[in-house]
Design a protein that fits this description.
This protein has 131 residues and is α+β, with helices and mostly antiparallel strands. It is built from two helices and six strands. This is DUF3467 domain-containing protein.
């Protein structure tokens, strides 16, 4: 079982990408070394690519409110926090929006699939989430 915050030494395949939790910044020298050590071809002409996550500029936020809007070209996810102290008795809710994430329809569908897989894993371990 992985330890939160620990580097996963065992990369795992997700579709056409080999996912790792390694933090890495890539210089021109590293880029040439990476291409020289590209992952081998998989079946049906697909190439497995390694994805290196650079979390050096990552920030953490909390949201307990999310809304999704869309147009034909994009999906916008709005994240925020409920600022209402007594939401049960309040006639209106005050939500401070902190982040807007804009995705293409294809990226949104991939995110939906990823989230559904994580929810399925969570419910197997901890029980069903009731809404």
């Amino acid at each position: 079982m992985p330890v939160p915050g620990a580097v996963n030494p065992q990369p795992r395949k997700r579709g056409r990408f080999l996912m790792t939790n390694e933090t890495k910044t890539q210089s021109a020298e590293n880029a040439s070394q990476e291409s020289a050590h590209a992952a081998p071809e998989s079946g049906a002409g697909e190439r497995i690519r390694r994805v290196n996550w650079d979390d050096s500029r990552m920030e953490t936020s909390f949201a307990n409110v999310v809304n999704v809007l869309n147009t034909r070209e994009e999906f916008m996810m709005l994240f925020g926090t409920n600022q209402t102290w007594n939401a049960v008795e309040a006639e209106e809710l005050n939500v401070r929006l902190d982040h807007r994430i804009v995705l293409t329809p294809h990226a949104t569908k991939r995110l939906m699939t990823l989230l559904q897989n994580r929810i399925n894993d969570y419910e197997k371990r901890f029980g069903k989430i009731d809404l």
